[in-house]
Amino acid sequence: MMLVNRRQFLSVSGTTAAIAMCSPYALFANTPASHVQHSASGTLQAMQDLEQRKNRMLGYPINMASLPEEFFAWRKQLEITGLTRFPFNNIGNPYDHSPIPFNSHAFEAELIDRFGAVYGFPPDNLWGFLTNSGTDSNMHGLYLGRTILNHATGVPPKIYFTREAHYSIQILRDLLQLDWIMVATRPDGGMDTEDLERQLNNNPNHPALVVATIGTTFKGSIDPIDAIQARLKNRVAYLHLDAALFGGYLPHTRFAADLLHEANDPATGTKHKRYDSIAISCHKFFGFPSPAGLFITTRTNFERFLAQFSRIHNPEYVHQVPGTITCSRDAVKPAEFYFFSSESAFAQQAADARTMLENTDYLLKEMNNHYGDLQPVRANDRSNTVYFRTPGKAVIARYSLATMRMALGEQQASYAHVVVMPHAKQEILNRFLSDLGKH
Q1: CA 433, CA 415: separation in Å to the nearest integer?
Q2: Of 145, 356, 366, 377, which is the most buried if we count CB atoms within 10 A?
Q3: Residue among 299, 332, 416 at smallest CA distance from 367
Q4: Could you tell me which of 252, 214, 224 has the C-alpha nearest to residue 118?
Q5: Are 297 and 276 in contact (CB under 8 A)?
């Protein structure tokens, strides 16, 4: 019999055992193959059952309408080129040469050009890209703004936003280590620009990085861009718009001018900038089947940022200064989302936006007529959100309603909301109204 000493034993039982247990095969060593297959089939079955429930999704801003067959045909065309069959990578600036030829930069740049025109950016002063999410778009806006302002003054900016802003702003504020100023809101939930001016005057030695929310997460409130810009006049400031949901549909309504990057000054007849950058989510109004976002700014802002960004890293390896926080970037999403920038897609978006706002009118009217005790509120006529006192738990569960505690005078009360997305037709809303009466 061969004897081993303690060190040899520990070596075998420790390292070798650890390697063995880390093997992918070890994960299934004690699990019958039939059980693994059953688990996977059960999960797939549960996912298929979601198809029956998707139209009842009323509590979150997700367009659950089925995508047209043309979208899947477009996906097939992309697949034929090799996209999704082998690795593509959109590393870097989509408007610059990439050393990796397997990319969808051409689609991405044209996508930004088309949506830049929708938001009124000058075609010769435009830059952007497709991000991994709305939060990613906001991150690039805040990072751009922080870098530009810090370089312009030598002093880090303070960030200004309201409690109604999306929670991603709080995360990004912490990530970028920015001192924050919480700005008060008006009764409708939009930013109180008088309080903004007070806060700016209290911090005169710091540039201002202001986040305006165009469609707040719970109430659907709107921060007034022009009134904010008036308070920023003659100050060193950067204004970023988080228009995650509203930015998708407002351009296709009579309120399209709300999000234009430039406006005419009636006094001088010249155009002036209304904001610096904008973030829009692709998976909300558009119904894109995975999280993605548009980030759009001016080429002037991008080049000011790039001059500083190029100092913090050596981009020789990729033959350009990328200008994006993320290095390797998804090439599939820009190519697929390109489908939503065609003339026919814009026409469908206009029809969806019109119906969506009409259905929001309908829901608010019916709730006031039949459930006035729930105190339904719509923050403004641009909003597709109606919030109200929380109904019974069965209704909350059936329709996946978001709930929040909100101040009601000096007390707190629980509220829920319905976000009327394109899939929420009147038939669905009528069913919801009927269920409200049962619980």
Answers
A1: 16
A2: 145
A3: 416
A4: 252
A5: yes
Question: Degrees (nearest 5) of the Cα angle 154, 157, 161?
Answer: 170
H/E run at residue 174: helix 167-175
Q: What is the DSSP string of 397-436?
A: HHTT-EEEEEEETTEEEEEEEEE--TT--HHHHHHHHHHH
| Rounded-to-integer distance, Cα 214 and Cα 119, Å | 13
Contact 340, 110 (CB under 8 A): no
Which residues neighbour 200 within 8 Å (Cβ) at sequence distance 6 or greater?
160, 208, 231, 232, 235
Class of domain 87-341: alpha beta
Task: State the DSSP code for 82.
Answer: T
Contact 340, 288 (CB under 8 A): yes
At 37 the pLDDT is: 61
Question: Cα separations (Å) of 154 from 119, 146, 148, 302?
Answer: 32, 11, 10, 19
User: Has residue 27 got a pLDDT over 50?
Assistant: yes
pLDDT digits (tens, 9 = 90+) for 369-427: 999 999 999 999 999 999 999 999 999 999 999 999 987 666 789 999 999 999 999 99
The topology (CATH level 3) of 56-67+344-438 is: Aspartate Aminotransferase, domain 1 (3.90.1150)
- The span from the CA of 156 to the CA of 138, in Å, is 18
Tell me the two tokens of residue 408.
């009601």
What are 268-319's pLDDT values in tens digits? 778 889 999 999 999 999 999 999 999 999 999 999 998 898 888 777 777 7
**Is the Cβ–Cβ distance between 228 and 239 less than 8 Å?**
yes
Tell me if the pTM is above 0.85: yes
What confidence tens digit (pLDDT) does each residue in 2-21 have?
A: 455 545 544 544 545 444 45
User: Would you state the pLDDT for residue 36?
Assistant: 56
DSSP 12: I
Q: What's the whole-number mean pLDDT along residues 106-130?
A: 97
Query: What six digits make up the tokens of 236?
Result: 């060193």
Pair 419, 60: CB distance under 8 Å: yes
Q: How far apart are CA 279 and CA 143, in angstroms?
A: 13
Judge contact between 292 and 282, C-beta under 8 A.
yes
Residue 335, exposed/middle/buried by CB under 10 A (0-12, 13-18, 19+)? buried
What span, in angstroms and rounded, lies between the C-alpha atoms of 304 and 391? 51
Q: What confidence tens digit (pLDDT) does each residue in 338-353 have?
A: 999 999 999 999 999 9
Q: Do the bridges between strand 237-242 and strand 208-213 make them parallel or antiparallel, or are there none, so unpaired?
A: parallel
